[in-house]
Amino acid sequence: MPLFMDVHKLGDAVGIDDVAKAHMADLQEQDKYDVKYLRYWVDEAQGTIFCLAEAPSADAPAIVDREADGLVGQEIFAV
Question: I need a labelling partner for 77 at 20 to 30 A (CA). Which of 37, 44, 56, 58 fits?
């Protein structure tokens, strides 16, 4: 399965607890689209979140994000 890294640039500081809640929402939706979130990293001060996922396409994690929490990444990279 291909790996993708999506980058969420929120523009303001972000709390790790809020990111953890959003990640849990992603985990609840991921199976519908054959996505498996593996790990995420947060730059709290810059408001940037990086998510690593296995997915059948670059679009699949974006769909999960949209449905789970509305926080769709601005960039996605195949890794």
Answer: 44
- Checking if the pLDDT of 11 tops 90, the result is no
Q: Does the predicted model carry a pTM greater than 0.85?
A: yes
Tokens of 62: 């974006």
Structure tokens at 25: 């929402």
Distance CA 59, CA 56 (A): 8
**CB distance 73 to 8 below 8 Å:** yes
Distance CA 61, CA 34 (A): 9
User: Rounded CA gap, 54 and 11, in Å?
Assistant: 26
Q: Quick one: tokens of 28?
A: 């609840």
